[in-house]
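Moderator note: this is an archived Q&A kept for reference. The question asked for a predicted structure of one protein chain; the sequence and the answer are reproduced below.
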Amino acid sequence: MEKGFRSEAVDVVIVEVDGEELSEQMDDIRLFVEKFGEETDLVATFPRINMQIMPDLLRSGLRDVLPLPLSEEDLDHCINNSLARTRKTSLQPRKGSVVCFLNTRSGAGGPFVAANLAHSLQFELEKKVALVDLDIQFGTVAYDLDIKSDGGIVEALRNHGRIDQVFVEALMAKHSSGVDVLASPADLTTWEGLSPKALERLILVLQRSYDHVVINLPVLINDVTLKALSMSNPIFLVTQGTISMMRNLNMVVHRLPVMGLGLENMEIILNRAGTEDKDLKSSDMASFFGDIPHHRVRSDFKIVTKAENEGKAACEIDSRAGLVEDIRAIAQHVAGLAGEGKIESPSKKAKRRWFF
């Protein structure tokens, strides 16, 4: 199907499918969608007597399915929709920054920091933010924010050919802060069928609509998570000051570059700083990882517990707490990397609204 094909010259390809060689044809369709689906819409036609193959076709990533005999009205509608989508996409340049949070061990606190960073960017800097929970089995972002965990991320990644702005918007859950969340199902859903190509397409679509795309990753390195990391700048490695987490952090810092991810995109977040006297302090980080930028997030068990119980951001509990100030500083840093303005403190923002 793809031999000699130039996707940049074609908006829509229509292929006729029959039931006798369906398995081979489905393999060709999936290969085409994976390779050219970002630029070219693939549409299938098939005899109405073979309606039983419709579910398989819809799951293959096709843009549309048209039973035969094909009417002129159906064909016009299909082509016009594809052309409208192509024009809309071409008019929207990629703009959004991508930030990933990778725990160096379960319990490091990456999901909480990621969710609160997204809130700070959206609520305090008034930027449009998408929060993606890629920890499909044990993700807690939806739980922490008290929103429905409907597995939107899995639905997106298993429908590669349908990933566009309209489809993704329909899968988003909205938090009261304005942050749009693509939640994980938070169950034992398998990674089967979740391809790095689909994630790449998803991120590109999100970048066209959002100023910042914040991704919470599982404690897992596979083709999908590596794709997210390769598109991120910076990559936040979330750790704590314990010996075991420092060991894992050291391993990650040395192994990810071997996988093609440069140290120049990595930054360290020392979470729950100051919890125990025996833990590594933020002031000690330079001696161990001096070449890698590092940030601290102070420990505040009461605020974290209350925020998670009430489905709120930490700043909604206490906007002046040390933990909140630390996350706000990281948000300011992310905004600065994207060339954006400074985040005003709540008191300054209130004064500006009253006196200017």
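Archived answer notes: DSSP finds 15 helices and eleven strands in the chain.
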